[in-house]
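Review form for a predicted model. The reviewer records the input and the model, then writes brief findings.
Reviewer: anonymous (R2)
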Amino acid sequence: MGLSLALTTWASLLAVASAQFKCSLPAGDICAYENATTYAADNAPNCTTSGLQAFVNNLPGLNGATLSVPYAFYVDSNETLDEFTDYIGASTFTTDIPPVCAFRVNGTNEQGATWGLGALLLTHFNGSIMMAAPDSGLSWGVASAGLRYAFATFAPTPVTTSQTTFQLIRTPQSHPHYTQSSRTRSSANAIPKTRLTDSIISNPQGCFFHPEALACSSNKTSNCLTAPKLDTLHKIYNDWTTFDQDLIYPGAWFGSEPTWNTTFGNQHSKSWYIENILGFKNLTAQDLTYKLIAEADARNPAHANAYDFDLSPFFNRGGKFFHWHGMSDSVVPPGSSVYYHHKATYAALEKGIDIDQHYQLYLIPGLEHCTGTPTCMSALWYLAGPYQAGNFFNFTPANVVDNYVHDSFLTLISWVEGGHAPSYMVTTNFEDNADPTTLLHNRKICP
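Model under review:
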């Protein structure tokens, strides 16, 4: 209810221009922001808490839900931008943006469920909504980076019931099964199958990892893993399944170890969703059972799990699915995207649909969770778009090539508006990630 109402509210707030954005360039060319048709929000409410509150009070289809607007800022200068970011505590926010109305809507439905929705609405926009993928809620950094495309941004999180319980599997730090990421760097144990060797694990699933090399012995008692810790390591790398081998959640891939300390086993940071959304209080890793997972899936709060793999209605409306995932991601293992793509492919085949014309998955070697790369790899991870730019920078790097093979969001715009299906992407890295103004390398990535 909360998410559906949020989408309805956002669509209503954007429905201040009657025309739809259309590409005016030849098929295959890019409709960049400066070349696209935009529309003035002539009928928009005043960018004040009172003006927006009056607007949301009259929205249709609320079904007993109540909405409130706690704050609103009209941002048209560096000074007003600083006031807004200081107020909301945004650590990243793109500078040098066009004038925008920035506000938040909070909602409560008849059952008492609550949710929040943030918005950045331009005075001139392209009439469309941009769907980004923050872990939960709205990322102000992503939304602000999306302003250069004249879109607004929000997103749900998929497969939340399995993801949040999987991250407890490593157990608390005080437990004998707890492992430290510094002791489980599989990079050194990945045997290259070709003559090309570098620090990047380009095919994690093809690595031959020998965990016994890390085992403690009578002659090796430090910087090693005991038998219980090796057992935990095995569970992290392997898919989490039932006794009948039904998949609960995919395991981590080789090369994701540098971020394990922030991903697994920290009970306090991983239990919020489980305790407050699912209602399982004081849950520990030892309490995880198949029965509990089944109950979590049955509850599926807000219907957040992405279990409907039939995308034909979306495809039939002209929708395109451009999907990328980092191979070194430990927060959401890339196997989850591979699993979803396989299931969506099977569902499309049953409907006689060529999935490659509508949905492409790109796996990025060395990319961690959405942004960044392990220092031991220095992989080519950057493919632009508002999400990476919004989380990594307060600006768009000046020397990044601005076209549909270097910018993932321009890829999607070109595919939808120009009919130009991508055949590859180009990822880059920087000479200094702290000062991302000089490109170091380029790499072609195929779906």
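Findings: The longest strand covers residues 66-75.
Further findings: The chain is about 25% helix and 15% strand.
Recommendation: see findings above.
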